[in-house]
């Protein structure tokens, strides 16, 4: 975040403030445990793609990032006994 000072018509850069919102410490372990159980994990975020990629890598997601917008309906194999709700967490 940039910080400016001075009159509105002649503001000058006074400094930069770095912000960080890292994922919780147990996120990577949880994602790993879910993968070991056969659960496919994805991240739904409104972050910028570059930010989302960094967070996904930090928690062990393999590029499974949903950009902002409607969540796509999963395709379910014809031999599957799962319902769409089970794929969406319901």
Secondary-structure blueprint:
Layout: E1 2-5, E2 12-16, H1 27-36, E3 43-44, H2 49-59, E4 65-66, H3 84-87
Parallel strand pairs: 3-4
Antiparallel strand pairs: 1-2
Into which percentage range does the β-strand content fall? 5-15%
Element string (H = helix, E = strand): EEHEHEH
Please count the helical segments. 3
Based on CA inertia axes, which overall geometry fits?
Answer: elongated
Tell me about the biggest sheet? 2 strands, antiparallel
Say how many strands there are: 4
Q: Report the uncertain regions.
A: 83-90
Mean pLDDT: 78
Give the end-to-end Cα distance, rounded to a whole number of Å.
38 Å
Supply Rg. 20 Å
Helix content: 25-40%
| Physical arrangement of strands within the biggest beta sheet | 1-2
Based on secondary structure, the structural category is alpha+beta
Can you put this structure into words, describing what you see?
The protein has 90 residues and is an alpha+beta fold. It has a domain at 22-77 and 84-88. The protein is built from 3 helices and 4 strands; from the N terminus they run E-E-H-E-H-E-H. The strands form 2 sheets. Strands 1-2 form a two-stranded antiparallel sheet. The protein has a two-stranded parallel ribbon with strand order 3-4. A hairpin with a 6-residue loop joins strand 1 and strand 2 (12-16). The protein starts with a strand and ends with a helix. Mean pLDDT is 78; it is low at 83-90.
A few lines on this structure:
This protein has three helices and four strands, in the order E-E-H-E-H-E-H.
């Amino acid at each position: 975040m940039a910080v400016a000072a001075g009159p509105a018509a002649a503001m000058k850069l006074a400094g930069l403030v770095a912000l960080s919102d890292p994922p919780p410490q147990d996120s990577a372990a949880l994602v790993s445990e879910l993968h070991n159980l056969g659960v496919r994990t994805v991240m739904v975020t409104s972050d910028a793609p570059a930010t989302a990629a960094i967070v996904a890598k930090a928690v062990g997601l393999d590029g499974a990032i949903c950009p902002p917008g409607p969540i796509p309906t999963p395709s379910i194999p014809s031999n599957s006994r799962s319902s769409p709700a089970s794929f969406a967490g319901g």
